[in-house]
Amino acid sequence: MKRQDDEQTDPKKIIAGYWDLRSRSYSKGVTDFRDEENEIWKRCLAPFITDIRLRKALDVGSGTGFLSYLLDDMGVDVTCLDLSRGMLAQAREALLQKRRNADLFQGDAEALPFRSSCFDIVASRHLLWTLPDPGKALAEWMRVLKPGGRILAIDGNWFDPTVSKRLGRGLSSLLASFSQSRNPVPFHKFYDPVWQELPLYRACGPEKYLAFFEDAGVENVTIDRLSEANGFYKSHTSLSYRLANAGTLFLVTGEKGKQETKS
Ligand SMILES: C[S@@+](CC[C@H](N)C(=O)[O-])C[C@H]1O[C@@H](n2cnc3c(N)ncnc32)[C@H](O)[C@@H]1O
Q1: What mean pLDDT do residues 14-23 have?
Q2: I want to staple 240 with a disulfide (CB 3.0 to 4.6 A). Which of 37, 72, 175, 250 is the partner?
Q3: Would the pTM count as exceeding 0.85?
């Protein structure tokens, strides 16, 4: 009985449950212009992976593998890790179809099943907002990075509580309820009981991410407001998507110092 109660209240179990159900619809993406979308993201990432030594990446919270394909195209070896078996099943199916290789692991971004100092890059997209302990996750990402390795974290201020943004999200869900773009899984049923336990869920511009990065000892932290990617989604997605998400994306990057510290 106790085990069943834990399953119903453990935020990570609830979050994994949501993404399991969401995996099939999520894999369809938010735009019909996938090639253009991919090229834009590659241009965003390229300045951070020009260094020839950065060749082995972990895509953490990989979902259906969006970032993994980009990094693979850019000549980087990718390992995917995600909490949700449903998301990983979608990633596996897409990898097979596209005849690509990547190692897939089911696991937790806050407790990685990898030895220390084995990746050149840890990349994530749209993950940190949904973690109960982003500080613990960043400490783990720093642990598995080699000295001089990089963190690339893309995210968005998805649940900005300002009135105009709340209005936009309200209108968006009203519109979506009349269209096929509606998320078929009830997001709020899963996230309402847990969102208060997620420090980067709400009111989270890049400055708040910056503080977590600096606390984790990440060096040379930069913020990029991703104007090209934000512009693309403004002009190539449905009105309901734009009303909820316009202009929210940013990229936070940083490095592990070149000197290995004793832990
Ligand atoms: C919004 S999706 C993003 C997926 C993918 N990165 C992308 O950009 O398309 C968030 C992903 O984070 C995963 N996730 C949530 N909590 C996680 C955790 N603690 N550890 C690993 N993955 C997690 C979810 O299962 C889901 O696949």
Answers
A1: 96
A2: 175
A3: yes
